[in-house]
Amino acid sequence: MATVNEAPRYEEGAEGFRTEEMILNMGPQHPSTHGVLRLVMTLEGETVTHCTPVIGYLHRGIEKILENRTYMAGIRYMDNADYLSPMLNETAYAGAVEQLMGIEPPRRAQYIRLITNEMQRIASHLVAIGTYLLDLGAFTPILYCFRDREGLLELFEEVAGSRFNVNYMRVGGVLHDLPTGWLQRLESWLDKFDNSWKELDVLITGNEIFMKRTQGVGYIDPDQAVAFGMTGPILRASGVNWDLRVNRPYGAYREIPVNPVVREDGDAFGRYMCRLYEMKESARLIREAMAALPGGPICTRTPIALRPPRGETYFAVESSKGELGIYLISDGTEYPYRAKIRGPSFVNLQIVPELMRGHKMGDVVAILGSIDLVLGEVDR
Amino acid sequence: MDLTSGAPLPPAPLNAASQPVATANALVAQLGTIHDATGQPVPTRMLPGNIPAITVDAAQLLATARQLRDALGFDLLSSVSGVDLIDHRQVVYHLRSTTRAWLLQMTVNVPESNEIDSLISVWPTANWLERETYDLFGIVFVGHPDLRRILLDDEFVGHPLLKSFRPTPLTIHDPATTGTDGERAISGETQRGIGHQRVVPSHLSQGEQERLHPGTPTFGSTQFHGRSFPPQTWRHQPDYSGADEHDIKQEEKK
Fold it and tell me: What is the pLDDT of residue A152?
């Protein structure tokens, strides 16, 4: 803050020019801030000396809303937190209630959750990569990415009834069983996706302009990443092998092991590569889960009016952006006494000022896009 | 209000645990080192999902946090949550160890003064998490370098996640302009509130300040608004707790 509060300084530049610090507002309505994020940047020439994110433009008070909704009704509001990965959000909330009540969902429900969660992870990473490349000036990849994502959203529509706000998870299982022929359509989508993944890889990864703009930009040290609470692809791209699906397996991940994608780069390029290869890993997990999909019920018999016993618990899933944790307190009534959402985007955004400092103005977008923010989850 | 003293907790489920039983027990066995560091007893209980939960005295918070990070390897602060238990407030920390894959919950009861130590010096990620807790619960973190609202507007009054919070109207809207003649409506006189009650903010909002006085720094400057620390919005917050109890009694009579 101190830099921002000072009066503009006039200094002698290297060549004797008089330079002045400039304050530049980026956002909240800026196409490459991925929503309503405002960055207040202090520039010295083209170098960013200070950056202050201003958030809260999308604050809807989801935690307060959850306190005023029954446990089952609250699941629907989790969709709006991270609107690019609703399935993962719902799994976190339903899982927290299950943990509080001591319910174990049937195996089939857990496998269905794994399949939909990994589909959602692919969809979220596709958006992340597509929009990132769009920010960097490449228009084609987003068309490829959204073409593939469309297939996933159609499959979500078949299974849950809607494409975005799916409202599919329930406490104790899932809402509907898979429709007839759904698995075959998913299989054919995966076959298509194998080709599209190669296309994306060939189109982006070796591109010299892309590499020049991302390699060495926004480097995060492993120790720094842990200290700043980074999770998800950002942490793994910095060389820290930490994935809740591996280190704290929940649901069907206890039976289908995950091979985490870890890279040593720590820069924006590493984060992109992490997301790219995580999509491949997710596709592999979906295939394994489809092959091992058990039969049986899809949901336990839970009453409509859930009254978990008094107590508190914390349940976290590995979302597409990192650790998505739910801290729930029940006072024995139908409504949660307190529901806290630990959103990965909110915590990951904290490191942005550290990364921006000293970089050129042109790298700001390259750093911001590589963090993969969803402002719905930052502001909640 | 004590939520922990109700019915006994159900046995933790076998499979859907956040932490295997063996890991949780290994962690509990290690928690004695906190006692060595602070000299205070560490009440430990087990939450559903096999999450050990310790309760820490507010005065020992910083020492305990340092001990947890340095001796036990809790390097990742996952979340900071405020809880309003009506008669007092709590701050709940969830800590993880990336090397040993431990998960621990640390609860601190906020004293009457409503101030507890900031943990920024231990985990830098506490910065925004504590700002959020201050914003929504009004808990003041002593030693925080930049404690101001983060999710809500700077001019917002009250802390919305408190159970006693009642929304207050922020602006009074002018009557609709259907009854006015065209000229006045176009000139904006009616909209500006001439002849009606006018809302005069105590100070300019961020956007207005920047527009009227370009170049003046507004964002993040607590000095600019002439606010003392802690901010006045917290000091002058109306106390609704009495009304709450009254309402509850009225309902009980019915």
Answer: 92
Predicted ipTM of the assembly? 0.85
B223 interfaces chain A, CB cutoff of 8 Å: yes
Model confidence band, residue B203 (pLDDT cutoffs 50, 70, 90): low
Q: Do residues A67 and A336 make contact, with C-beta atoms less than 8 angstroms apart?
A: yes
How far apart, in Å, are the Cα atoms of B150 and each of A237, A283, A346, B44, B159?
28, 38, 11, 33, 12
- Chain B's closest residue to A62, CA to CA, is B161
Among all residues of chain A, which has the CA nearest to that of B119?
A227
Would you say residue B5 has pLDDT above 80? Answer: no
- Inform me whether the C-beta atom of residue B56 falls under 8 Å from chain A C-beta atoms: no
Give the phi and the psi of residue A236 in degrees, each rounded to 5.
-70, -30
Q: How far is the C-alpha of A340 from the C-alpha of B46, rounded, in Å?
A: 19
- Rounded Cα distance between B72 and B130, Å, is 23
Instruction: Quote the minimal CA–CA distance from A23 to chain B in Å.
Output: 8
Q: Do the beta carbons of residue A275 and residue A129 sit within 8 Å?
A: yes
Q: Does A311 touch chain B (CB under 8 A)?
A: yes
Best A313, A328, A349, A351 residue to mutate vs chain B (most B CBs within 10 Å): A313
Residue A285 has pLDDT above 60, yes or no: yes
Q: Which pLDDT score is estimated for B12?
A: 41
Q: Which helix (H) or strand (E) holds A318?
A: strand A311-318
Q: How many CB pairs under 8 A join A and B?
A: 160
Nearest residue of A to residue B146 by CA position?
A1
Give residue limits of the domains in chain B. 21-142, 177-253
Where residue A123 falls among pLDDT bands split at 50, 70, 90?
very high
Q: State residue A246 phi and psi, 5-degree precision.
A: -95, -45
CB contact residues (below 8 A), chain A span 254-273, against chain B: 254
Q: Which domains does chain A have, with CATH numbers?
A: 62-351 (1.10.645.10)
Which of A54, A247, A332 comes nearest B219 by C-beta? A54
Pairwise CA distance, residues B185 & A253, whole Å: 64
Task: Give pLDDT, residue B8.
Answer: 41
Q: Which of residues 22 through 51 in chain A touch B, CB cutoff 8 A? A: 23, 40
Would strands B102-110 and B51-56 be described as parallel, antiparallel, or unpaired?
parallel
Structure-token pair, residue B179: 């009854």
Provide the 10 A C-beta neighbour count for residue A188: 11
Beta carbons within 8 Å of B237's beta carbon, 6+ residues apart: B138, B157, B158, B159
Question: Nearest to residue A260, comparing CAs of A288, A224, A232?
Answer: A232
> Tell me, what's the pLDDT at B239?
52
Q: What mean pLDDT is predicted for residues A354-361?
A: 86
Tell which CATH architecture fits domain B21-142.
Answer: 2-Layer Sandwich (3.30)
Chain A residues lying within 8 Å of B153, measured CB to CB: 56
Nearest to B95 by CA among B120, B71, B109, B77: B77
Identify each DSSP E strand in A169-254 by its residue range: 169-170, 173-174
- Residue of chain B whose Cα is closest to the Cα of A226: B76
The CA distance from B232 to A56, in Å, is 21
> pLDDT (tens digit, 9 = 90+) per residue, A57-99?
888 889 988 888 888 888 989 998 888 999 999 999 999 998 8
